[in-house]
Description:
heterodimer, A: mainly beta, 6-stranded mixed beta sheet, 5-stranded antiparallel beta sheet, 11 strands, globular, B: mainly beta
Amino acid sequence: xxxxxxxxQSLIIxxxxxxxxxxxxxxxxxxxxxxxxxxxxxxPVSLTIMTFSENTKSNGxxxxxxDADTKQSSxxxxxxxxxxxxxxxxxxxxxxxxxxxKLIWGLGxxxxxxx
Amino acid sequence: DAGVxxxxxxxxxxxxxxxxxxxxxxxxxxxxxxxxxxxxRGLELLIYFNNNVPIDDSGMxxxxxxxxxxxxxxxxxxxxPSEPRDSAVYFCASSLVRLGQQNTxxxxxxxxxxxxx
Lengths: 115, 117
């Protein structure tokens, strides 16, 4: 069964600290892996999209890694800010056509950054 | 561009009533998706349109749910009759799918929080 599992379920860190969120998936076939940020009361916003051949991709203070062999990904947040408080969702696409119809969504990690 | 626009932002209705959720995708996008989000199940795809045509509605939970896309700039999701278990946040998303491109990004609206009492 195609699944995306994220850990931890929730996380609290102090402003300025780094953190790493984990994602394990059992999706086949595999096209790409995405990390989304979802602020409270808003829709998800894409942070990164990585294909099979990409090991790491950065977007500002966010760095995502992908190990397609072990089917694991991580999202590292550097020098956290209060605005990083959100839910971070790992999404795997099993669709070679790329039309987003086969996205398998994780349940997300809820991150709280405290001053 | 204002992004994907959904209305209403919040809807409270009584069980048995009809509910209509509305979505205006990003201009020029050719694909539209309706999602439902709950704490227990996360985001679930309900239906996917391409060029205004429903391609995959396998995620629509029951016949009480229906969706239409009469033109490229408007879509509706209707629940009739509504039930308390339909309470969730419903998202509309759109994307521009180009032939041969695999990493098309989906842009989400702000969602409609539906509460059925």
